[in-house]
Amino acid sequence: LQIRPLVAVHHQGLKTFSLPCVYRFLLVSFAIFSLYSVHLLLKTADEAGALVYESLGYKAFGIPGKLAASCSITMQNIGAMSSYLYIIKYELPIVIQSFTGANDGLRAAMTFCLSPLGYLGYTSGLSLLCMVFFLIVVIIKKFQIPCPLPLPDTGNETMNIITYNLCIFPSLQTAYAIPILTFAFMCHPTILPMYDELKDRSRRKMQNVANVSFLAMFIMYLLAALFGYLTFNIHVGPELLHTYSNYYKYDILLLVVRLAVLAAVTLTVPVVLFPIRTSVGHLLFPRKDFSWIRHAIITLTLLTGTNILVIFVPSIRDIFGFIGASAAAMLIFILPSAFYIKLVKKESMKSMKKIGATMFLILGFVVMIGCMSLIIYDWIVNSMKDKGH
Question: How many Å apart are CA 57 and CA 74, to the nearest integer?
């Protein structure tokens, strides 16, 4: 249920979450918010008799509701696929260099050769095992790396950039932390299809499935953040594996972890591509029969556009931030609460359940508008700094 965000957020590193108390509060809050959102979705689906996110949107608000749901799901999945390819972009050249001793020219060339990786086979179970292995290594390395930290093995100048104290800039870091966590717990479009396929399905049974899944991911996120922070403290970088590489350039265990992460994201990319392609096909060609030519064109267009995005976006944090503050906020906060308010007719607007859903809807708009405003402000400030203003 939660493989896709797990793969992406573990790699993001912990710089955004270097304030442990703040991170724990945000992690607990968004786990609860996500479970409440699942509850709203399941109850609305039962009341409306629709088990597809887009169908709920259509029943609630007609064509605009369907478009809002479809576009949000498409954006979310494009963001997920972009984040996985971004991981491949940064980790694959390092792995190749470790095996071949290749120079930077070959590394740059391999960075651009991303699209064939989306066609490899996949299994969700293997992806999960890879990320569990990643977490185990993070915990092991905490006890292997001495304190205080040794001098970096590499002359990487980024170490000078990532050692600043994040307490100086809490607002901008929070602006990224909130959408990243929203992105991390975002699996809601898959909830309804899974609910539809559940044998002897009931809302309670599906809610229990979601509870177990979110609890497992909560524990893994918390342990990764805790041990990553305890290992590097304020020196933790924007990409956790790269932070390890600053101190141990050629470490066999870290190389195996990189291979595991690459395997996990490679196996997951096709899983993300399928719903994007299906959603785009239904959105643009709702009444046309299946065509292999159209199918291939949509696939190539999506892969090309995503690879261009990955090549030119400077940081994976920008992808997490923008998608988390826009599409993920829509899918977790705004749409489920709006669907619930509109479609669950047997409860009055003065009931506690409807009041709770209304407050959740307002919170969604606050998260979206607030985070997007701070992220755009951060982009403007960084752009002015780059230009020397």
Answer: 14
Find, among 216, 213, 207, 218, the residue nearest to 38 by Cα. 207
- Whole-angstrom distance, CA of residue 162 vs CA of residue 242: 12
C-alpha 338/C-alpha 265 separation (Å) is 33
Query: What does the H/E/C string look like for 212-250?
Result: HHHHHHHHHHHHHHHHHHHHHHHHCCCCHHHHHHCCCCC
CA distance 233 to 244: 12
Residue range of the domain that includes 145? 3-386
Contact 359, 338 (CB under 8 A): no
Count up the domains in the chain and report the number: 1
> Do residues 12 and 239 make contact, with C-beta atoms less than 8 angstroms apart?
yes
Is 29 in contact with 185 (CB distance < 8 Å)?
Answer: no
Mean pLDDT of 44-51: 90
Mean pLDDT is lowest, of 110-119, 237-246, 313-322, 325-334, for 110-119
Work out the burial of residue 82: count CB atoms within 10 Å of its CB; fewer than 13 is exposed, 13-18 middle, 19 or more buried.
Answer: buried
Q: Contact, 26 vs 178, CB < 8 A?
A: yes
The per-residue pLDDT of the chain, averaged, comes to: 78
Residue 300 structure tokens: 């190539």
- Extract the tokens encoding 253: 């265990």
Q: 150 or 254, which is more confident?
A: 254
User: How far apart are alpha carbons 107 and 89 in whole angstroms?
Assistant: 9
**CATH number, residue 371:** 1.20.1740.10
Cβ pair 272, 299 in contact under 8 A: no
% of the chain with per-residue pLDDT over 90: 20
